[in-house]
């Protein structure tokens, strides 16, 4: 009587002829490959979409029209004009670095929507208020999604640095800014 042989997968036949060291390496690499496939097939794409969902605090900005975060658009809104400078003088002539993160809605024409700007973070409330007064003068290239302009929540980081200027006794203030103005290193 002839017994039918079941065909074996070629990799199992190769496995029988491997040394112990090779078998261990094969098992480790196969396990790592399987773990990598599972990790890629798991919830990674969901993390990106969840990060991009509008937060409950954004509901006041929606206004019945589509609104997107920067991670949900093809081309992000980009500030092209700084507008007017904030009218800010630190109280008590303090020196240092002042910063504010402003969130605002940029409309389809590249203009900040009135009343949409809010302070996300700041180290000085007076500086933040001065920056908020200038938001209406900022200009943007609007965000785009599939080729059409869309409303987007944009975040801008604005900094200013103040310093003491020392001049020799008896001389007046400097006639102009320093030869090489230094950007704030906040």
Report on this model:
The radius of gyration is 30 Å and the shape is elongated. Mean pLDDT is about 75; it is low at about 30-50. The strands form 3 sheets. Strands 1-8-3-4 form a 4-stranded mixed β-sheet, covered by helices on one side. It has a two-stranded antiparallel sheet with strand order 2-5. By secondary structure, the chain is an alpha+beta fold. It contains 5 helices and 8 strands, in the order ααααββββαββββ. It has helices at about 10-15, 20-40, 45-50, 60, 125-130, and strands spanning about 70, 80, 95-105, 120, 140, 145, 150, 150-160.
List the helices and strands and how they pair.
Elements: H1 10-16, H2 20-41, H3 44-51, H4 59-62, E1 68-69, E2 78-81, E3 96-106, E4 118-122, H5 125-132, E5 139-141, E6 143-145, E7 148-150, E8 152-162
Parallel strand pairs: 1-8
Antiparallel strand pairs: 2-5, 3-4, 3-8, 6-7
Mean pLDDT: 77
Largest sheet: 4 strands, mixed
Rg over alpha carbons: 30 Å
Secondary-structure element order, as H and E?
HHHHEEEEHEEEE
Shape: elongated
| Helical proportion, percent range | 25-40%
Summarize the structure.
By secondary structure, the protein is α+β, with helices and mostly antiparallel strands. Helices cover 26% and strands 23% of the residues.
Attribute tags:
single chain; 186 residues; four-stranded mixed sheet; 23% strand
